[in-house]
């Protein structure tokens, strides 16, 4: 027996068949209101009115405001592959540039909304799975290519390096509200290329005492 789902069976299960055009209309309305009002003042009622649909239409697709805004954040988040350029320095610069772009795209109202929706476990799980996970996978692949070429240490702690770069960009641009210059980004890359990177502990290294 086929397990293929049809719009009728989806509706019978309590779901709502996908309508990309309608979903996009609602998400666009939410994006506009989010920019104008911020997360706290955003309501499902206002989104429905802006999109020209009923509240029920919105609630049939998203259980609450955090789920709706979480969907918007995921839709607007970029997940880019870092191409194999055959040049570790160039690929590390591209990786750093992507981190800068990712933070820049999340600024202002959108960034505040991300912190607000993180309190919803379902939204956080989706954001980790559909955005952060793929971004980290592409970043790790670029760093590992550098290791394979002998340009980066074999024991580099890839995840900590990426977190350090992301944290530096976030603190400088969001907390300090200061521009990150191209020369400063290049300096961070050059530190990594010179071997100044976090290292994984040796397999037989003793655990640090508290």
Kindly describe this structure:
This is TetR/AcrR family transcriptional regulator. The protein is 64% helix and 0% strand. The termini are far apart. The N terminus is likely disordered.
What features would you highlight for this structure?
single chain, mainly alpha, Arc Repressor Mutant, subunit A, Tetracycline Repressor, domain 2, 2 domains, 0% strand, elongated, disordered N terminus, transcription, TetR/AcrR family transcriptional regulator
Q: DSSP strand (E) fraction? A: under 5%
CATH class of the largest domain: Mainly Alpha
Overall pLDDT score: 83
SSE order, as H and E? Answer: HHHHHHHHHH
SSE class: mainly alpha
Task: State the total count of DSSP E strands.
Answer: 0
Distance between the termini: 59 Å
User: Segments where pLDDT lies below 50 for 5+ residues?
Assistant: 1-15
Q: Could you please say which CATH topology of the largest domain applies here?
A: Tetracycline Repressor, domain 2
State the fourth-level CATH superfamily of the largest domain.
Tetracycline Repressor, domain 2
Relative helix content: 55-70%
CATH architecture of the largest domain: Orthogonal Bundle
Quickly count the domains: 2
Taken from the alpha-carbon principal axes, the silhouette is elongated
Rg over CA atoms, rounded to whole Å, is 21 Å
Biggest sheet character: none
What is the topological layout?
Elements (H helix, E strand, L loop, with lengths): L6 H6 L7 H18 L6 H8 L3 H5 L5 H12 L11 H18 L3 H9 L3 H28 L9 H18 L6 H12 L17
Helix pairs in contact: 2-3, 2-5, 5-7, 5-8, 6-8, 6-9, 6-10
